Amino acid sequence: MSFPVPVPPVRRFISAADEVAGRNGVSIRIDHRRGHYFWAVARNLGPAVVALRSGCLAEAEVTARPNVVLQQVQAAVLELSGHGVIEIFCDDENEAQRLRDFGLAVSRHYPPAPAIAAMEELVAARLESLYTNLEIATDASRGNLTRWVGHGWVLDFGGTIAPVLGCKAIEGGSVLEGELRAIRLALAAARATYAGALDGRSAVIVRSDNQDAVRMLAHPGFEPASANLRCISEAKRILDFVRHGHVQFRWVKGHAGDPLNTAADRLAVLARRTKDAHLPPEVAAALRESVTADARNALRRSGVALAA
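-> structure tokens emitted (308 positions)
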């Protein structure tokens, strides 16, 4: 009886990981994050990424010009490929099909790992660049007949990032305590919106129309006559909150036409009055949504006017 004798394979075995890593070509990534479309294109030769391109477009612009992202990606691919025949990859099959329909011969193979890593870094850097500057406006409103204090804040990262508006009513506290608490709530909202806001990745300016609150934060140790223990505690909490950040505290004259201050004031008054009036939660939420939309539109109009 004869038994089969092992022989060398006709073709050398190549693992899937090695095969993907050895691919050369141009890779594409298109991401939709935070109301923006980010795209990145990477040209690689084996493990080496030799050329990169990227872009970022606001959602409103893409809505007005639906093919603008595909046009920019196509231009980048042609530039990096040198208008020659080269394999094109995309790490999302839905986007790959859109690119094929647009005229790019996108492969059905997965992009090489070096290109994927490079494109992810590009998109992350583009996203971070939208949050490098932050302007915060805060205000508080204390009722004469109740102990409710309303707090309002506006976060403005500038550029194409939509302003973030918020408000909250809390029972008890002096005017100064309310102003400090509004600043703390705004800083918490900033960190929730962008994790790097208070760790040094953003340059933050906090504007308040209360001079004592600003002085307590800009000059630690200063205690005005109106400051009680709760005010001092709030100031310490805020300073601890921003100890790793690049944060400045500035005074702005209230009710003087400053768009951010006006919006923060409206939100603070709204938060207090909904509590004063004992409105049901659903009515208060609808009113808050309406006032917030009006304030956001006013900020958008003021931004357009300043740009003009």
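The longest helix spans residues 281-307.
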